[in-house]
């Protein structure tokens, strides 16, 4: 063995022992006749001491060690005179007796420190060096612990872990597939799975009544902080269950992870609200309920006063920001510019302040009397010192804009504390959404989601009115997981495909294997999939999942460390029967 101990385990009780450590040189300090070297491995850091008077040759050898050299050191554990409470090994040091250089190192392109001087792109290019940093390594260790706890909980609940294929069939709906050409079957392609959806349903038909898998999934879509072209799901399915059974089981998983990873317990069951309620009160189907400031509609109350913006609007609503009446004109202008950004698309913002005497001052004073403004404030439950922020327009777009404004205010006012967690379930989503451009319905979740039984009568007459037997787990304004009760009979599934514009022939070609399986006694079933990377990032206090993936892609879906995607040789293209079309200039 190259070591008797790691660099993170020696303590004062080891004093006097002869030990051997191996690791990387973190830093060294020459102080007259003494040289101090910090030795690092994945377990921690231990200080080495070299004394020029006791062993000048060894001390001079230590002074030639560069950062990130790999070394083996033997010495005696001694009590440290200047203890370092920030280190687990801060009470001791090693009086070195021998050192062996196992490998040298070039000067790293950035410092291997928690607060490094390397930018994102540089650190991703040298990701293997970035992973040496303690804070990055701790993210990967947290991810590991999460995976172990997920397996422990689900195994305890009787779930079976089953691997499903990675080379599958390309199907419509959802994001774009990543496709893989077949060498043996020219002109035909596999697809990488966006999720194991159909396979887990087939496992239910096969009688595996509780399945799970921590599985890689692939989607060719535009990237952002919480997206990667390849990502990991905790994928789960159960048979003979209703929605409440699934929510209870996986609320248990959430509680288990928060308890074991963060030491957090939640009082009472997670709140449950409908999609319609979430949109009405928060302007989002993934509301952050760590703070109030709900959206309140005032459409009818503001009409008929010759203020064209309100009179012509489909919807008028606002939020009440408590104790914010002192906001300056500059701050209000900043909020107005915020909602006017292209991503939000609002045209403007109306504000009103409730003064200390209870009167209301507003940017629309000339259209509304003092009594009118007081009535608006009463509807919005505003009291002295509060600020009202009001928007008008198309209902869907205005609610979404108010939702974004609410989150921005919550951030500015310090209500969105990353160390606090407020989970909830959002239920009863629309089953379908209409696309004006293509003039057809698309599945809000996926085409295997079951309609609410009470809405089945509308599947043929008014599909847009149908609610789904679907649910999302939302934590702090982030969708952590989502699922549904599935369609388990071929008649309803065929009707769903027809509603989505698929002919019988197209449905049979794309999903014939599933429809055929349903003919052989498919049980009622449902499931859920959690974004594993996203959940890890949340528990680790980060807004980007890249920090919790060992080797992530950048926001152009490139791995700049291994330089991929890249071109392949013409011989490979010929084997696959593929010709690359030149881009038109």
Number of helices: 17
* Unreliable sequence segments: none
Question: Main beta sheet: strand number and arrangement?
Answer: 8 strands, mixed
Q: What's the overall geometry?
A: globular
User: Which fold does the CATH topology of the largest domain refer to?
Assistant: BirA Bifunctional Protein, domain 2
Percent range of helical residues? 25-40%
Determine and state the CATH class of the largest domain. Answer: Alpha Beta
CA radius of gyration: 30 Å
* Annotated CATH homologous superfamily of the largest domain: Bira Bifunctional Protein, Domain 2
CATH architectural designation of the largest domain: 2-Layer Sandwich
Cα distance spanning the termini = 61 Å
Q: What is the residue-mean pLDDT, rounded to a whole number?
A: 94
Strand proportion? 15-25%
The helix-and-strand class reads alpha+beta
Strands, total number: 22
Strand order of the largest sheet: 6-9-10-22-21-20-17-11
Strand-helix topology:
Elements: E1 18-31, E2 34-41, E3 44-51, H1 56-63, E4 70-79, E5 92-103, H2 120-125, H3 127-130, H4 134-156, E6 160-161, E7 179-181, E8 189-191, H5 197-205, E9 210-218, E10 230-239, H6 243-262, E11 272-274, H7 275-282, E12 296-297, H8 299-302, H9 308-311, E13 315-321, H10 329-340, E14 350-354, E15 360-362, H11 370-379, E16 387-393, H12 395-412, E17 423-427, E18 432-435, E19 440-443, H13 458-461, E20 470-475, E21 478-485, H14 490-499, H15 504-518, E22 525-531, H16 532-539, H17 570-576
Parallel strand pairs: 3-5, 6-9, 11-17
Antiparallel strand pairs: 1-2, 1-4, 2-3, 4-5, 7-8, 9-10, 10-22, 12-13, 13-16, 14-15, 14-16, 17-20, 18-19, 20-21, 21-22
Helix pairs in contact: 4-6, 4-16, 14-15
